[in-house]
Write a structure and sequence with these properties.
Blueprint: E1 2-5, E2 18-21, H1 24-38, H2 40-47, H3 51-67
Antiparallel strand pairs: 1-2
């Protein structure tokens, strides 16, 4: 399992809520659950992303996830 803050995942710079997951996909799902509840304006922007933007974001996030230490 790995853990990152909301801010480390690309959320607001001041959000230190910890998000965890066993895979990058699980962490993104858990992060989106948090974003939807805590940062609805950001969730709305994410939903407007094109498939290409989403693919690029996920590829960039996968690198961050891979670099994060396991818990």
């Amino acid at each position: 399992m790995k853990q990152m803050t909301c801010a480390q995942m690309g959320g607001p710079a001041t959000c230190n809520t910890m998000i965890s997951g066993n895979t990058a996909e699980e962490m993104v799902k858990n992060g989106m659950d948090h974003i939807n509840q805590a940062h609805p304006e950001m969730a709305a922007d994410i939903k407007k992303m094109t498939p290409e933007e989403t693919t690029k974001w996920m590829a960039d996030f996968q690198k961050k996830f891979d670099a994060a230490p396991a818990m």
